[in-house]
Each structure stands twice: as structure tokens, then as C-alpha cells.
């Protein structure tokens, strides 16, 4: 594990595999950094996978408990920008983010010097959906009652099972989910993250001069597919690819398919 520091002195811990062109992999939601384990072995040897621990989602980089929802995205963007500035190499790094990590990647690329961006279903809500979004409030109500597991279950239900799932099926699914119930410890951070998502408004124009590959899947939440298209339209240099039969967990669910598309994009 290597470390660097952001401008405010926060320690940034990350793992680097390889000596090639840095490809920074930004996980989302409650996924741990090893979310990228199915992806890394498939990357071309010309790339060096750089996997940081998101603030509050790892043992080396813990978010301060007083961090507000309004600060969450700004804090994570600053972490990515500091990491990008610190990485050695002949070429500027590439950012590859999933979900909330994809939102962070796109926002960081507005100011950081990067070579390209890959964004799998950025955690952005369409305006109509955002105005009605209440996930953060529902999570907060459960936390106020000390119901930490229920708070996290509501997040899993909406993001990973958008077509609905009854409580018995959800409980059985969670029992097979590798990060359950350890992810319950992240409940407060996930709540702050969701508030940040609910408050984020996609601008009409995203000032990212580098090429961006926006990815989505037909089996994920409809609102994320809609947002992926909106992000694509807001970028000046973007390609949109929709995978048939793949859900929101695309990079880990179908790594060969996703990496093949990423590789083709980077080589073009």
C-alpha cells in the first residue's frame, strides 16, 4: 500500500499494480476497493491499476464523522485530484469510476490533468427523479431509531434491486452478498453520500476536455440509464455504450465485456 496526502493533509492510501500508464479505479457505493479484483487481471499490461481507498470506506482513510453531505463530493474530488497530481508516469492518468466513483471521476476531470475518463453509470439523478428522491431521508429515519441494518437494506433495495424485491428475498440475497453485514458499519457515510447525490444537479455542459466513455447496462435502474445518457450529452467529447443484459454492477458482473469496451476506447 502506498500513500500520499491531499492539500488539507488527509492521507490517501492506494495500491498500485504495474508500472505502465496509470489507470485509477474508483469504486462506488458500499463496495470496498477490492470491487475491482475481477477487472484488474484483464487489463492490458500497458496499464498500471491504481486503486485508492475512498474516504470513509477503508481502514487507512477514514472520513471525519462531522463531514456533511455538502462536503462529501468536494472532499472526494479533492482526493482524486491530489492522487492524480502525485502519480508518476510519462502520461497523465486515466480515471475509471463506477457509480459514485464515476460521478467523482467526471467531476475531478473538470480540473485535474487526466488522459481520459471511463464512467460506468455515474450516480446522478435525473431532475424529475431527484425532486422525488427520499432514500436519504428514509435511511436517516432508520438510523435515528438505531436500525442500522434496515438503513443499509433500503440503499441496497433501491440501487441493486430497482425492479423490487420482497423482504424475504432481500434477506436471502444479502446473506449471499460478500460485503454483508460488514458494510453496515458504513451506514452514516452511505447516508451522507446519498444526500450528496440527491443534491447534485447535472449542469447543461460538463467542461471536461478529455475523451469520456460513458457506460450503462439494460438491466440496471432506469434512472441511472437515463442519467448516463444525460452525462453523455453534457460532455463535449463522449462515447456512450449500453450493454445488453448487464446491471449496475457491470464491471464486477461482466468484467470481460466491460474491459473489452474500455480497452477499445483507450486504444482509439
Automatic annotation (TrEMBL):
Q: Where are the transmembrane segments?
A: none
Q: Can you say what this protein is called?
A: Hydrolase
Tell me the organism's taxonomic lineage.
Archaea, Methanobacteriati, Methanobacteriota, Stenosarchaea group, Halobacteria
Listed PANTHER family? AB HYDROLASE-1 DOMAIN-CONTAINING PROTEIN, HYDROLASE, ALPHA/BETA FOLD FAMILY PROTEIN
Which residues belong to any copy of the AB hydrolase-1 domain? 23-260
Q: Which domain of life is it from?
A: Archaea
Originating species: Halobiforma nitratireducens JCM 10879
Listed InterPro entries = AB_hydrolase, AB_hydrolase_1, AB_hydrolase_fold
| A molecular function (GO) term | hydrolase activity
Amino acid at each position: 500500500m502506498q500513500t500520499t496526502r491531499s492539500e488539507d493533509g488527509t492521507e490517501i492510501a492506494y495500491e498500485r499494480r504495474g508500472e505502465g500508464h496509470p489507470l485509477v479505479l474508483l469504486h462506488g457505493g458500499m463496495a470496498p476497493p477490492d470491487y475491482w479484483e475481477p477487472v484488474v487481471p484483464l487489463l492490458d499490461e500497458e496499464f498500471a491499476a491504481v486503486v485508492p481507498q475512498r474516504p470513509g470506506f477503508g481502514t487507512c482513510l477514514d472520513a471525519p464523522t462531522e463531514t456533511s453531505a455538502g462536503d462529501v463530493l468536494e472532499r472526494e474530488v479533492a482526493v482524486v485530484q491530489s492522487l492524480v497530481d502525485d502519480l508518476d508516469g510519462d502520461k497523465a492518468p486515466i480515471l475509471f469510476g463506477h457509480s459514485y466513483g464515476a460521478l467523482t471521476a467526471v467531476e475531478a476531470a473538470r480540473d485535474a490533468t487526466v488522459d481520459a475518463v471511463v464512467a460506468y453509470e455515474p450516480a446522478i439523478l435525473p431532475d424529475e427523479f431527484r425532486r422525488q428522491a427520499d432514500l436519504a431521508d428514509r435511511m436517516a429515519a432508520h438510523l435515528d431509531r438505531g436500525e442500522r441494518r434496515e438503513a443499509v437494506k433500503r440503499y441496497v433495495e433501491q440501487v441493486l434491486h430497482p425492479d423490487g424485491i420482497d423482504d424475504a428475498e432481500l434477506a436471502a440475497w444479502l446473506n449471499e452478498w460478500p460485503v454483508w453485514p460488514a458494510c453496515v458499519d458504513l451506514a452514516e457515510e452511505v447516508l451522507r453520500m446519498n444526500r450528496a447525490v440527491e443534491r447534485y444537479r447535472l449542469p447543461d455542459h460538463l467542461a471536461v476536455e478529455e475523451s469520456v466513455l460513458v457506460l450503462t447496462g439494460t438491466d440496471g435502474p432506469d434512472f441511472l440509464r437515463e442519467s448516463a445518457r444525460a452525462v453523455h450529452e453534457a460532455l463535449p467529447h463522449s462515447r456512450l455504450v449500453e450493454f445488453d443484459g448487464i446491471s449496475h454492477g457491470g464491471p464486477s458482473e461482466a468484467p470481460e465485456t466491460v474491459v473489452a469496451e474500455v480497452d477499445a476506447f483507450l486504444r482509439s
